[in-house]
Amino acid sequence: MNAPDKEYLALVREKMPKSKHLTTVFRAFWTGGVICCIGEALNVAYSSVPGDFSSDDVAALTTITLILMTAILTGFGIYDKIGAYAGGGSIVPITGFANSVVSSAIEHKREGVVLGLCSNMFQVAGPVIVFGISSSVVVGIIVLIFKGAFA
Fold it and tell me: pTM for the full model?
């Protein structure tokens, strides 16, 4: 390497912002963990409610409650602040999916209900839904084939 290249690399190292990977990973880890703990607390609370709730009913109620809480927090702009702080830790659970749907709806609400909200609501989440359904069909077919082969 010649001298100008070395000087340039030294300048780049000096001016480049320092990496904050450890801080970012820690924030994502604990924030995602708190969201999951809230989900588990809801699961335990719904399980202890007197009535004939099956485990599927409890799981559905927990999921619906997390989605509703996220939609409300997104509507008030709070979940965006959580996302800015936590990064990937806030998008991994189902709450990130709910946030993407509600954010798209809020962003296009001025265009009206049909052309704004309804047509753009799944703009971000739509590909996730399509990929999720498509991959589940492929996995289902693979399981069906191999289940028949090993039965």
Answer: 0.68
